[in-house]
Amino acid sequence: MHPIIIFSYKMDFSQNNLFGYIEDLQELTIIERPVRRSLKTPEEIERLTVDEELNDIERAVYLLSSGQDIQGTSVVANLPVLMRQNPAETLRRVLPKVREVLPVAGVEMQLTAAVSFLTILQEESISIHTYTHSLLHIILQNLEHRDAGVSNAWLETLLAAIEALPKETIRHEILNPLVSKAQLSQTLQSRLVSCKILGKLANKFEAHIIKREILPLVKSLCQDVEYEVRSCMCRQLEHIAQGIGTELTKNVVLPELIELARD
User: Fold this and answer.
1) What are phi and psi of 183, to 5 degrees?
2) Cβ atoms of 117 and 91 closer than 8 Å
3) In angstroms, how far is CA 142 from the centroid of its own chain?
4) CA angle in degrees (0–180, nearest 5) for 101-107-110
5) What distance in Å separates the CA atoms of residue 158 and residue 174, rounded to the nearest whole number?
6) Strands, E, within 122-180: which ranges?
7) Per-residue pLDDT tens over the stretch 184-218
């Protein structure tokens, strides 16, 4: 057995550097190098040691359960690879561990998970039905993360998923919960996320559904007590207008836009 090498450096979370960081992390799940001379105690060596006989799935489960944070993050970065190679076992054994550690994970793992989930969606390594059943709820649970960067990363993954999800799934899993998430009693972050989701949903439904279920939420957010929310919803009105047609735009969206212009 050899200890897994661990890198320690300050991360740059800019979009241009995140994917490069994730590539480095993916290598950590594959590359093992003896580093005994750099470790001070047998306990340190034991803590970083992984049995060479473990296959990729077993190694991933072990590192998520017992490894250091950087090792767990490396597994999350490698999820798209595992999903391509062995989707059944990744879904059965690895994903439950990811779901278990994410609520207490640091910013690095959260950002990495959001990108990995997006990559899995784009690569279509599993069916959209499986993606909905296994990954969508994890995305939704992390939308309101206390770190704005993490929240935005999960939101981008969700917005991409909306393009591929069946209409009924969008309605039940995303639109229906927005009725409560967009209320004034919810957190500022929740209302900001709701604005951006509503803008994305506007071209996914027929005009009568938009009029009945989406426009009341849009009007409420346009009149929110927080300027940041009103501004965010204002930026989505173009997308809303494209989804509802000229008549509703003139009667509903335009008055809100005029009012916001006075803000």
Assistant:
1) -75, 155
2) no
3) 7
4) 50
5) 9
6) none
7) 889 999 999 999 999 999 888 887 888 889 999 99
